[in-house]
Design brief:
The chain is an all-alpha fold and about 240 residues long. The protein has one domain. It is elongated. Keywords: Membrane, Transmembrane, Transmembrane helix. This is Tight adherence protein B.
Length: about 240
């Protein structure tokens, strides 16, 4: 009982953070505190760029800073969510071990249900909770050993998680390519400087150049958002 109780506490602790319920996307932050931190950091970057290169430079720097900070924060949140999903599976395995050790099924099952329910609305956690209820119902109706049923449930759910992890690894290349393409304009400006040109004057201090710079920023943002949505959809379908 000690091991599974510790696992349940770990699951609740992991999922108590709002960041653990967010998915990897490029968009507007949803947590008020995270919004303040992200906007403040991006504002500092934009302010420095405005002082050095003007209003257009500040707007471009603000866009890049928001996207970069958002992506970093979402990647961290995804790691927390993955850990919570693993903890949810450990709850199922721990419950099976408790039952084999002679723990009363009623209390152990209810504790596991509460731990899973407290884990949030993640799809994998909802699935684990549903499978736990189904296993309990089958055991009550047919008299099958609940521990054996839970072993099968855990094995099946871990297979789903392995498939999800495999698809997530396969989408890493697409995300990296999108990020690289987003940075190519910066490399192009650097190449212009290396050739002795002054691309900053045309892009930052003329109307056509400013329109091109801001339009490119919007297109890059849209491309990153669309790539993130496609990759996330592929991962969710695998799970």
């Amino acid at each position: 009982m000690i091991r599974s109780a510790a696992v349940r506490r770990r699951l609740v602790r992991l999922m108590a953070s709002p960041a653990s319920r967010r998915r990897w996307t490029v968009g507007v932050p949803t947590s008020p505190r995270a919004t303040v931190v992200t906007v403040t950091a991006a504002g500092v970057v934009a302010g420095v760029a405005t002082v050095l290169g003007g209003v257009v430079a500040g707007a471009v720097a603000l866009g890049y800073a928001l996207v970069g900070l958002r992506a970093a924060r979402r990647a961290g949140a995804e790691r927390v969510t993955t850990a919570a999903r693993t903890a949810a599976l450990d709850v199922i395995g721990g419950l099976a071990a408790d039952l084999r050790a002679g723990i009363a099924p009623g209390r152990a099952v209810e504790e596991s249900r509460r731990a899973l329910a407290a884990g949030g609305s993640d799809r994998a956690i909802r699935l684990a909770l549903g499978r736990l209820s189904a296993a309990c119902e089958v055991s009550e109706r047919l008299g099958a050993p609940l521990a054996d049923l839970l072993d099968r449930v855990e094995s099946d759910l871990r297979g789903v998680e392995r498939a999800r992890a495999a698809v997530a690894a396969q989408t890493t290349g697409a995300r990296a390519s999108a990020a690289l393409l987003a940075l190519l304009p910066v490399a192009g400006v650097g190449l212009g400087y290396a050739m002795g040109a002054r691309p900053d004057h045309a892009l930052l201090h003329t109307v056509p150049g400013a329109a091109c710079a801001l339009g490119a920023l919007l297109l890059q943002y849209a491309g990153l958002a669309w790539t993130g949505r496609l990759c996330h959809a592929a991962v969710e379908r695998a799970s």
